[in-house]
Design a protein that fits this description.
- This protein has helices at about 60-70, 125, 165-170, 175-179; strands at about 5-10, 15-20, 25-40, 45-60, 75-85, 95-105, 130-135, 140, 145-150.
- The chain is mainly beta.
- It has one domain: Nucleic acid-binding proteins (OB fold (Dihydrolipoamide Acetyltransferase, E2P), Beta Barrel), CATH 2.40.50.
Length: about 180
């Protein structure tokens, strides 16, 4: 089962950028999501709890993150949540919350942003690029950066849609028109 979540928080590290062995772009950064409450007794906002997430992006999303996202900015990130166990250097076990992002955007409640459509590359169909398998991640669309499962590899729009012959033959109900 895959959990899809939306996070609203602060970029905690400057994004790093690289390419997989197959050449697919990726970007990673850490994001903090904090809980704040207004305390009547002190008449101030008080930090209650902060959770940290490792965010990974692929394809064009990674390139756009590289060019648009910086430490300290407020973001809204949507994607697939995975909890991964690991072993610390001292041998103790730990857990890490990872989010494979499908969408990243600035939180406009905290500032303004300027959106620019990228025009530096041809669409995937024209360039001949196809979704690629990234080890440990799954199938990644090189244009959108969307991570898909293997079952989603086939183009859902590739199959021919049957004509709606019944609807085409039956016109408006004559009784309704004469009323």
């Amino acid at each position: 089962m895959t959990d899809y979540i939306t996070l609203r928080g602060w970029v905690g590290t400057e994004p790093t950028f690289g390419r997989t062995p197959t050449g697919l772009p990726f970007a990673n950064f850490r994001m903090s999501v904090g809980e704040r409450r207004f305390e009547e007794g002190v008449q101030a906002w008080v930090e209650k709890h902060t959770s940290w997430y490792s965010i990974s992006c692929y394809g064009k999303l990674a390139e756009n993150v590289r060019d648009s996202v910086h430490k300290g900015q407020r973001l809204i990130v949507m994607g697939k949540l995975r909890i991964r166990g690991f072993q610390r250097q001292d041998g103790s076990p730990g857990l890490e919350a990872q989010l494979q992002a499908s969408a990243v955007g600035h939180d406009l409640a905290m500032g303004v942003s300027q959106w620019n459509k990228r025009r530096d590359e041809m669409p995937a169909e024209a360039s001949g690029r196809r979704p690629g398998l990234v080890e440990g991640v799954g199938v990644v669309d090189p244009v959108t950066g969307e991570v898909r499962s293997r079952e989603q590899d086939e183009d859902p729009f590739g199959a021919e849609v049957p004509p709606f012959e019944e609807d085409a033959e039956s016109g408006p109900d004559e009784e309704l028109l004469s009323a």
